[in-house]
Amino acid sequence: MKVAVTGAAGQIGYSLLFRLASGSLLGPDRPIELRLLEIEPALKALEGVVMELDDCAFPGLAGVEIGSDPEKIFDGVNLALLVGARPRGPGMERGDLLEANGAIFTAQGKALNSVAADDIRIGVTGNPANTNALIAMSNAPDIPQERFSALTRLDHNRAISQLARKTGAPVTDVKHMTIWGNHSATQYPDVFHAEVGGRNAAEVVDDQSWIENDFIPTVAKRGAAIIEARGSSSAASAASATIDAARDWLLGSATDDWVSMAVVSDGSYDVPEGLISSFPVTTSAGDWTIVQGLDIDDFSRVRIDASTAELAEERDAVRELGLI
Ligand code: NAI
Q1: Which of 158, 161, 173, 313 lies 20 to 30 Å from 191, alpha-carbon distance?
Q2: Residue 211 CB less than 6 A away from ligand 1
Q3: Residue 55 shares a structural domain with residue 98
Q4: What is the ipTM of this complex?
Q5: 144 and 168 share a domain?
Q6: CA contacts within 13 A on the Cβ side of 94
Q7: Residue 87 C-alpha to ligand 1 middle, in angstroms?
């Protein structure tokens, strides 16, 4: 399998590449070839990372290619993990950020459209992830829309971990967690459909104030808390979630559980069609299906609507910029 990673010389890349090469994605017996994309000034640093990959002598790493031309790096790839993005610099307005990332994801969408393998799957980690995925998807008309996703698995994993800690249960006992909406502070981590040890999580917790005032903001603002504590944004956990999401997508989610993935909306749960929004999904052999039939009460409705309204605003902004 040929796996492309963009932004490969960045922080997330430094964790992600070694996990991919050691077999965390498909298991140690299925070799992968890495195709690493960076901007020209970062290629030297990337060469150093490749030297370290060499030095690990990973048996499952069938080859590494690096470069700054997406048409060359994406040629024949089966999985593209789009991690590289333009961070918000000093004095940069939101519109500037969308425009800078728009240029990156327009070019990468077009390149994937023309050279990726027929079975390509694309996962976007680089922020603003949902809208970057929308831009790439809109610029790749020959790739089926359901092959694009944006990462909300880190939020999902954070939510599982917080709930496990609150209830004293192991993380493996927490099932059916859902992140709805945007990978941003408006996201809605939903415990009302989650279970702890087979029981409804909200009932087990039995503490509405904790759900509202502690759990939801802690999960939604965890990225900022990590920046505050570490001095830079979450990287190892983001890499780990990027792999969790890709592995479940390609190999299938557990039969007694679902995962959160931002995928193109078909209008389910009244999320406007065409937005890339996070849903509960089950996955199997490279396909995903939105879990249907969950009851959405008023508490959840307001929060899902707020986050999808933000996604619609981002979509309108990039539409105005002519990016989609
Ligand atoms: P970083 O700044 O350390 O690395 C980003 C890398 O992308 C840099 O090496 C840069 O040269 C490269 N890059 C920029 N433009 C590129 C282009 N056109 N083609 C290829 N490479 C390009 O950032 P870090 O910490 O690795 O994070 C990467 C992205 O992931 C950021 O946008 C960050 O906000 C996002 N992120 C997303 C999370 C999620 O849950 N969805 C969680 C944490 C981070």
Answers
A1: 313
A2: no
A3: yes
A4: 0.99
A5: no
A6: 9
A7: 7
- 3-state SS class at 170: coil
| Stretch 188-214: mean pLDDT | 98
Interval 203-232: pLDDT, tens: 999 999 999 999 999 999 999 999 999 999
The pTM of this model reads 0.98
| Ligand 1 pocket residue status of 259, Cβ below 6 Å | no
Residues 119 and 222 in one domain: no
Tell me: do 244 and 125 sit in the same domain: no
- DSSP letters of 154-210? HHHHHHHHHHHHHHT--GGGEE--EEEB-SSTT-EEE-TT-EETTEEHHHHH--HHH
Confidence at residue 90, expressed as pLDDT on a 0 to 100 scale: 79
Q: Is 13 annotated as a binding residue?
A: yes
Q: What is the number of structural domains in the chain? A: 2
Residues 162, 278 share a domain: yes
* Atom number of ligand 1 nearest to Cα 125: 41
Answer yes or no: is 319 within a domain.
no
| End position of a domain, from candidates 100, 130, 150 | 150
| Nearest-angstrom CA–CA distance, 142 and 227 | 38
Per-residue pLDDT tens for 72-118?
999 999 999 999 998 877 788 878 888 899 999 999 999 999 999 99
Structure tokens at 56: 């690990």
| 126 and 162 belong to one structural domain | no
Query: Which protein residue has the closest C-alpha to ligand 1 atom 4?
Result: 10
Residue 21 has pLDDT above 80, yes or no: yes
Largest interatomic CA distance in the chain: 55
205 C-beta closer than 6 A to ligand 1: no
**91 Cα–ligand 1 center, Å:** 19
Q: Give the residues across from 289 on adjacent strands.
A: 282
Out of 123, 150, 177, pick the residue that ends a domain: 150
The CATH number of whichever domain residue 173 belongs to comes to 3.90.110.10
Question: What is the CATH classification number for the domain harbouring 56?
Answer: 3.40.50.720
What domain range includes position 136? 2-150
- Pocket test residue of 35, 50, 125 for ligand 1, highest count of atoms within 8 A of CB: 125
Q: Is 125 in the pocket of ligand 1 (CB under 6 A)?
A: yes
Query: Which amino acids are annotated catalytic?
Result: 183
Q: Is the CB of 85 under 6 A from ligand 1?
A: yes
